[in-house]
């Protein structure tokens, strides 16, 4: 795909250097900005400067680097090997950059080498949950075996300081005498900026770095409103997404797996084949007990993803529209973990679902299939949002002025929420599911996020952070988008007065309390509708005796305060 040229900039106006919003210090003191890795929270003025095209978006920097080096990169000799740098694309099937790397190697008759860099500081800076690190490392085992079957080595190396990653990759490319390195694009700010630098740096050293779109069905930047703007509302964006895919059927073409390496590769790279998948770095390890539970719950790797997808499309997708909101029912695909680590591509998912329908139209035929495809599209939507409004990746809300909200940082409320001891059974069940599985049902994610922001009035970014630190499917764009939606500070504006009532949500989506009883065993003995509100519905004594807490806030009072603030 040809990179877009950077947009013409308006004349640079004075962007206030650092004008903190009124509550900037308080939010920082409460761990919103990770000062070990990042500067102070940016000013609202600076965030707005991205919107008025005064500051280049990180993707524009990368596109400019690709465009600016295109002629030089074309001239680069292949030399002895071609390298594919695996990141969040831990699969051999339908992997765009891997396919291109493999083609380059095949045409030149040289071997392909896979590279994966474990960067503990990136895990730390990006709040990657230990369960997610563990899933990626287990997926790497599968990937390594799949590549080995093709005589392709996968070299995995831990680089302690993330600033050293570019240099270390350069050393490896030199050692392997590789002229080309391929990678799929990641849309978070750190990664786009890093890749922009790498493309230029490597080009200066005579190495071609190719960075291509892969993770979305429709690459960011291709869908605009009638006036040429980025959509900020999902429904019209989705109609445009569907139209675009219908008009560009190649978007659902799947990339072939890489071919076999030349037979000589085994002997030549014997030391690379010998490398082991490392253990999780310090601070990101699981206890033995956790590993046992999580490994059984979440088998890793591409084959598992394909099995799960096939089974879902065979058995459950038809009923998805009916069941997807009931957390006690296995009505959703549980594939988010695979999308997040790239053990499954969104193209493969949408195409498989489409092929199990009677029509090729993404918005026709079986209702369950249509709904599911529209959910997978949310993932694209939030990545498009992140690319266009990059400051959402820098702790700012979509509308910068929403930084001016005076949130609470009440530590006791926050720990009741994280521990699942708020006295709201549906909230507590959900938070315990998160700890117990490293995953939470989507309906419950919305309930607990709304509860944190609108009942406890806590800074939504504390919840966003806690989710990233615990989710096996933690994905910056989807998590940030979900939190923005629930706290009414994101795109697809949900009016602030739309406040989830946890009791009504509980009655509607867990009518028999099955989900609550599973995750809050103290309430097992509570019968009937009291399960949703034991203290308010005559089962207070039983709940108290079992050690279940009373509600830490009253929804009605909190709702009024949220509306008033
Ligand atoms: C506050 C909040 C935080 C969230 N954080 C994350 C996150 O870190 N990572 C993540 O992958 N999803 C996140 N989501 C979206 C959603 O909850 C999960 O994708 C979903 O629960 C995963 O389960 P599943 O694979 O069974 O989904 P299914 O219902 O089977 O949906 C299929 C796929 O569609 C995508 N999808 C579905 N709903 C959404 C959505 N609302 N936003 C974006 N993509 C969606 C996911 O990739 C999902 O795997 C969040 C939602 C909220 C409200």
TrEMBL record:
The keyword Flavoprotein applies. Its cofactor is FAD; (6R)-5,10-methylene-5,6,7,8-tetrahydrofolate. Signal peptide: none annotated. One of its GO terms (biological process) is circadian regulation of gene expression. It holds the Pfam family DNA_photolyase. It comes from the Eukaryota. GO terms for molecular function: deoxyribodipyrimidine photo-lyase activity; DNA binding; FAD binding. The keyword Chaperone does not apply. PROSITE patterns: DNA_PHOTOLYASES_1_1 (PS00394), DNA_PHOTOLYASES_1_2 (PS00691), PHR_CRY_ALPHA_BETA (PS51645). Keywords: Chromophore, FAD, Flavoprotein. FAD binds at residues 320, 332-336, 372, 375-382, 473-475. Residues 80-217 form the Photolyase/cryptochrome alpha/beta domain. One of its GO terms (cellular component) is nucleus. Residues 1-24 are annotated as: Disordered. Residues 1-11 have a biased composition (Basic residues). Binds 1 FAD per subunit. The record marks 407, 460, 483 as: Electron transfer via tryptophanyl radical. Belongs to the DNA photolyase class-1 family. This is DNA photolyase, FAD-binding/Cryptochrome. It comes from Bombardia bombarda.
């Amino acid at each position: 795909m040809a990179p877009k040229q950077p947009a013409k900039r308006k004349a640079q106006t004075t962007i206030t250097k650092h004008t903190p919003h009124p509550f900037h210090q308080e939010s920082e003191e409460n761990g919103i900005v990770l000062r070990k890795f990042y500067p102070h929270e940016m000013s609202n003025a600076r965030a707005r400067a991205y919107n008025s095209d005064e500051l280049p978006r990180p993707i524009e920097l990368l596109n400019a680097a690709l465009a600016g080096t295109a002629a030089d990169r074309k001239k680069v000799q292949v030399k002895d090997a071609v390298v594919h740098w695996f990141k969040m694309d831990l699969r051999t099937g339908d992997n765009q950059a891997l396919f291109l790397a493999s083609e380059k190697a095949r045409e030149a008759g040289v071997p392909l080498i896979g590279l994966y860099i474990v960067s503990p500081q990136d895990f730390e800076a990006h709040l990657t949950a230990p369960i997610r690190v563990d899933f990626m490392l287990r997926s790497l085992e599968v990937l390594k075996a799949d590549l080995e079957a093709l005589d392709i080595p996968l070299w995995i190396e831990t680089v302690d300081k993330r600033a050293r990653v570019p240099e270390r990759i350069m050393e490896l490319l030199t050692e392997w005498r590789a002229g080309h390195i391929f990678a799929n694009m990641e849309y978070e700010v750190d990664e786009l900026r890093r890749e922009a630098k790498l493309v230029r740096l490597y080009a200066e050293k005579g190495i071609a770095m190719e960075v291509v779109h892969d993770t979305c069905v429709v690459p960011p930047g291709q869908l605009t409103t009638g006036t040429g703007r980025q959509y900020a509302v999902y429904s019209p964006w989705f109609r445009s997404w569907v139209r675009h895919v219908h008009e560009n059927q190649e978007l659902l073409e799947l990339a072939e797996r890489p071919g076999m390496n030349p037979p000589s590769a085994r002997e030549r790279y014997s030391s690379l084949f010998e490398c082991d998948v490392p253990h999780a770095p310090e601070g990101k390890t699981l206890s033995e007990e956790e590993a046992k539970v999580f490994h059984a719950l979440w088998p890793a790797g591409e084959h598992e993803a394909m099995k799960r997808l096939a089974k879902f499309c065979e058995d459950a997708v038809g009923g998805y529209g009916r069941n997807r909101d009931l957390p006690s029912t296995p009505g959703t695909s549980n594939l988010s973990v695979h999308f997040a680590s790239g053990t499954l591509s969104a193209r493969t998912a949408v195409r498989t679902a489409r092929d199990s329908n009677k029509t090729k139209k993404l918005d026709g035929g079986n209702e369950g299939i249509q709904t599911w495809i529209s959910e997978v599209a949310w993932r694209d939507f939030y990545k498009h949002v992140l690319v266009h409004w990059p400051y959402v990746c820098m702790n700012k809300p979509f509308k910068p002025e929403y930084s001016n909200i005076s949130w609470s940082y009440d530590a006791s409320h926050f720990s009741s929420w994280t521990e699942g001891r708020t006295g709201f059974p549906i909230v507590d069940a959900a938070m315990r599911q998160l700890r117990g599985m490293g995953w939470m049902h989507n309906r419950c994610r919305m309930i607990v996020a709304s509860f944190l922001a609108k009942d406890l009035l806590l800074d939504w970014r504390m919840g966003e952070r806690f989710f990233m630190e615990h989710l096996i499917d933690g994905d910056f764009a989807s998590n940030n988008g979900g939190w923005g939606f629930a706290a009414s500070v994101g795109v697809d504006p949900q009016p602030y007065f739309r406040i989830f009532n946890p009791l009504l949500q509980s009655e509607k989506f867990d009518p028999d309390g099955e989900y609550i009883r599973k995750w809050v065993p103290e309430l097992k003995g509570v019968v009937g509708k009291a399960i949703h509100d034991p203290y308010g519905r005559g089962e207070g004594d039983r709940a108290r005796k079992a050690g279940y807490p009373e509600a830490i806030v009253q929804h009605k009072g909190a709702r009024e305060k949220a509306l008033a603030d």
